[in-house]
Write a structure and sequence with these properties.
405 residues; Phosphatidylinositol 3-kinase Catalytic Subunit, Chain A, domain 4
């Protein structure tokens, strides 16, 4: 840091708050409805309570300095991990991402924060600890930004590779692709008979090793199942794709699921060279970690509860997403033709691509799936689970998505 970014290193200390999720999220006055539930309607808050309420703590950490070491990641854009020293003495890590528009990720974090509020206002969701793990995303301009580094997390891919290595199983994407693309062979039969048997279900072993005592193991497995269910439903509604094993992390302390990289939103996966055929990741390893009931137990019930709440509050959720109409993303802006951008007739009109995406989200929140009549919450969840676990769909997924893991 002191050598390559001298100006930044010398600027500390700064009277700037460390951009953590908890520091950027204001606390709203609790306007309860008398029975312990959060009132989601327009409940008036007494003036005296408004005057005393502090949306932010007065002791939020500011930037005291920077660690000199910078870690360069090995991915394509070579993002850098920096560590900020806070005024409270703690160290906070962030990922500096270049050549990536993070406004979509930031907007999704706002959306997820609202969903957490909705879940927090429902006693059934609270009792099951249904929530989404969020983190700070700070866009600095259209092509770079900061992402809060969530500590004590590990990618599902890393966990599975380590477990397969312990079993003497070699994971070769090229070999799997060769088997799936064998000339003259039926892809589904190849997938079921030759690919899946090479990769047994092992994810449950990570929970046994990571959480030694029975009650910690059960609690971690339950949290994994429920957090996976929540993000499966939210991801379906938003058309979230690219859920390969590196974009799903596990919390090593709690067993919860954390999703990263939200670039493939609004059903973008359907327009890829090899379109995505499943609504979310529910491969045999994911099901294996959920216990003997698989997706028929807590996963299905949590999906139904989460989707039911999303559909119940669809108007509030859509109002948050409406901002996409008035602040189109760079990705959508680039699709707009130059002639249309110059035309005075289109000035001030909603972005066409954003409008189509919002219409698709609205249909999902009404229970409509492609080519089907509107379904009940239970029917919609059942259809999504069937699609996510269908071998006919999984065998058509891009091999890098690793549908066999």
């Amino acid at each position: 840091m002191a050598t390559d970014f001298r100006a930044l290193a010398r600027s500390a200390p700064l009277d700037v708050i460390v951009p953590l999720q908890r520091c950027l999220t204001p606390a709203v006055p609790d306007a309860g409805n008398g029975d312990g539930e959060l009132a989601l309607g327009p409940t008036p808050v007494p003036a005296s309570q408004q005057a005393l309420h502090q949306p932010f703590n007065s002791d939020l950490p500011t930037i005291s300095g920077f660690d000199d070491a910078i870690d360069v990641m090995h991915s394509l854009q070579r993002p850098k991990k920096i560590t900020i020293v806070g005024s409270d003495g703690h160290r906070y890590s962030f990922l500096c991402k270049p050549k990536d528009d993070l406004r979509k990720d930031a907007r999704l974090m706002e959306f997820n924060a609202m969903i957490n509020q909705l879940f927090g206002g429902d006693s059934r969701a609270r009792s099951r600890r249904l929530r989404i793990c969020t983190y700070a995303v700070v866009p600095l301009n259209e092509e770079c930004g900061l992402i809060e580094w969530v500590p004590n997390t590990v990618g599902v891919r890393h966990v599975l590779l380590r477990l397969y290595s312990a079993h003497g199983v070699s994971v070769s994407m090229a070999q799997a692709k060769a088997l799936l693309d064998a000339p003259g062979a039926e892809p589904e039969r190849q997938f079921l008979d030759h690919v899946l048997p090479r990769f047994p279900s092992v994810l449950h072993e990570w929970f046994v090793r990571q959480f030694g005592s029975p009650h910690l193991w059960l609690e971690a497995r339950s949290l994994f199942t429920r957090s996976a269910a929540v993000m499966s439903m939210v991801g379906h509604i938003l058309g979230l794709g690219d859920r390969h094993c590196e974009n799903i992390l596990l919390d090593e302390r709690s067993g919860g699921v954390l999703h990263v990289d939200f670039n493939c939103l609004f059903d973008k996966g359907l327009s890829l060279e090899k379109p995505e055929r499943v609504p979310f990741r529910l491969t045999h390893n994911m099901v294996d970690a959920m216990g003997v009931t698989g997706y028929e137990g807590a996963f299905r019930r949590s999906c139904e509860l989460a989707l039911g709440l999303l559909r119940e509050h669809r108007d509030a959720l859509m109002s948050v997403l409406e901002s996409f109409l008035h602040d189109p993303l760079v990705e959508w802006s680039r699709r707009t033709t130059r002639a249309a951008s110059r035309s005075k007739e289109t000035e001030g009109l909603p972005n066409e691509h954003a409008s189509r995406s919002l219409s698709a989200i609205r249909r999902k929140l009404q229970g409509s799936l492609q080519g089907m009549a509107p379904l009940s919450v239970e029917g919609q969840v059942d259809e999504l689970i069937q699609q996510a676990t269908d071998p006919k769909r999984l065998c058509q997924m891009y091999v890098g998505w690793a549908p066999f893991m």
